[in-house]
């Protein structure tokens, strides 16, 4: 038996169009907390999903307790002693806390569920782990933080040898974080290995023993926590060369067109103020969940703001819904292309003209729709069999271009583009970058949200960095680099 | 190329082919099926269902449903009938009512029906309860109102001018069929030629995307459910006119027949897919089927089963066609 409880070697995993894991490794010792570190999309969660049987690896070896293992589903992984706390919570909201904890393995008497035993066992667990939640409470009555604690308790209750925690503290308050760390301490004493995925440097340095870093689906290094400092670690995380993917053209920056003052969204965005000028690309950097999308949704009228004012050209705007925003020539390219962007069952033309239908009159002048959409198909070189093709039959990149066409048809002054190149191939990516740059040079003002630092750095004139709903810094293009942005985004540097 | 064209034509119009095949088959089995009288009879029987279909197709297109239609037909039939009973008829519902023009009865009926639709729309748009539940509730309420209004007695002996709406003929067709044609034409026009139609296609296809694109989803949903019950109200007035009386038991399960026609016509219950030509074909297919089964002499107890099988078959076929595309 080796010194490792888990060894993953040369793991490769591809998705259509993307190689998410390009032969990575991870070695975890029993009784240790092992941090898995990397930017969004570096492949951390994918590797963990390969481990517990949600995904099947394409190639590579997984040795668990010295034996080669390959779980084909989560149930197998759980019964072999590997449990996981997922980043996204999956509670059954209408059932009680204890039913959620014991779901799928309810203690039984014969064929009947033994509710009394279930409640007792939950109580014991909660007592042992110092969690004060009523086992009989309905799940939906809990706060998000409490639900997260239930999820943690559930993962621990399997008496696993390995517990994977994917961003477990993202919705916890400070006292609960302390509680979690105490639980992790207990687990260590019992010889359990914890794989800890987090972006929060302070946490990692406090509770972890070893750190494995990934970047773009590749293994970078494994270090002992007391032999490395934050800056080296950040460089390892992001340290790649900026490619020529970003055709940034210097263009004159004009007067202020958008001013946002003290904008807040309950629990998500706290008092953000900034200005945006004509011809400028303002990058929004931050980790997933930093509140960037919520901030622009509030500006665009998709989300109610609790306070704050938005001015365009010096006039205060009253935006109650996206329609108001579009009338004020503010448009949004959503990050959730399928969920909030395209209408898949409708044609390319219908999708392009969707938010500009007013201009086609009554009855609708179909010839103009045909003319306009054909024009944009050519201008943006959208690859389609024609304006009648259904949007769901297009590739991701071309769907994105259809949405860009929809924005442009409204002749906007301000474009908010949220993760414009997520999940699309490299070719379409640089085309979209070129379009954005071109729009800026035409005097449009652009807000670019991206979780890819090279994209932010390559495209933006200024960069606004957010951390947990607050604005941490606005950096000029010249003073910004990956390390400074990352330290602001992880909350490492205080203002 | 030619082959592909034919393939595409048959694939988009396959439902019309089904109709043609049904007609030919029945005509061969019994030539009297094609007599003018019988064809008029089919259209007349289906007219009210067809009018309801022109309404409920919008709800289904918007990923909803309207179960209240049949009850709205009943309520509207008694309300409008109560205003157009022959003046010197002895047992009028309102004995002291002055002699009113029939327009009052029509308007009152349409207004009551449309109001129920507005309520449906408000419920669906703002309380976010599922349309199935909202309109199931108003279905029961509307039926109950119709019974309360009349004590569940019929409202007979209507003025001849009113009855002419449902019993008269115009240009060789029953009036009631013309009304169906007009309502279907309006629906088809709105569907393809107006912003409203495009908005509903988008809302049904992806509500969130429609919202982000600046479409006021709630307002549009209210319009959809109001239009749906407006159609049912027209159906209720015509049914009262045709039968010569209003009755709180009219229209039972009509909404289900209308939904079946719309569904057979290729309208997707997952929203966003609907063609007026398909809906018309669906109405005709179910109408012809009902009539043909009588002509061929199929055991009445089997007829419902055949209808059921055809509805299921049509949807399975449609889903497969759509799945292949995706």
Blueprint (SSEs and pairs):
The complex is a heterodimer of chains A (495) and B (326).
Chain A: E1 6-15, E2 18-28, E3 33-37, H1 44-51, E4 59-64, E5 67-68, H2 74-80, E6 82-85, H3 97-101, E7 108-109, E8 112-113, H4 115-129, H5 144-157, E9 162-166, H6 174-189, E10 193-197, H7 201-207, E11 210-215, E12 218-224, H8 230-238, E13 256-265, E14 269-277, E15 281-285, H9 292-300, E16 307-312, E17 315-316, H10 322-327, E18 330-333, H11 337-341, H12 348-352, H13 366-379, H14 396-409, E19 414-418, H15 426-441, E20 445-449, H16 453-459, E21 462-467, E22 470-476, H17 482-489
Parallel strand pairs in A: 3-10, 3-11, 6-9, 9-10, 15-20, 15-21, 18-19, 19-20
Antiparallel strand pairs in A: 1-2, 1-4, 4-5, 7-8, 11-12, 13-14, 13-16, 16-17, 21-22
Chain B: H1 2-12, H2 14-29, H3 36-61, H4 69-83, H5 102-127, H6 131-150, H7 160-167, E1 169-170, E2 173-174, H8 175-193, H9 195-205, H10 207-212, H11 217-243, H12 254-264, H13 276-296, H14 300-325
Antiparallel strand pairs in B: 1-2
Helix pairs in contact in B: 2-13, 3-8, 3-11, 3-12, 3-13, 4-5, 4-6, 4-11, 5-6, 5-11, 7-11, 8-9, 9-11, 12-13, 12-14
The N- and C-terminal alpha carbons of chain B lie at a distance of 22 Å
What profile does the largest beta sheet of chain A have?
6 strands, mixed
**Biggest β-sheet of chain B: count, sense, barrel?**
2 strands, antiparallel
Q: List the uncertain runs of chain B.
A: none
Oligomer classification:
heterodimer
Shape, principal axes of CA atoms of chain A: globular
Spatial strand sequence of the major β-sheet of chain B: 1-2
Radius of gyration of chain B: 20 Å
On the 0 to 100 scale, the average pLDDT of chain A is 89
| Cα end-to-end separation of chain A | 49 Å
**Share of β-strand residues of chain B:** under 5%
Beta content of chain A = 25-35%
Which structural class matches the secondary elements of chain B? mainly alpha
What would you say the CATH architecture of the largest domain in chain A is? Answer: 3-Layer(aba) Sandwich
The number of helical elements of chain A comes to 17
At CATH level 2, the architecture of chain B is Orthogonal Bundle
Please work out how many helical segments of chain B DSSP would assign: 14
The radius of gyration over CA of chain A amounts to: 25 Å
- Percent of residues in helices of chain B comes to over 70%
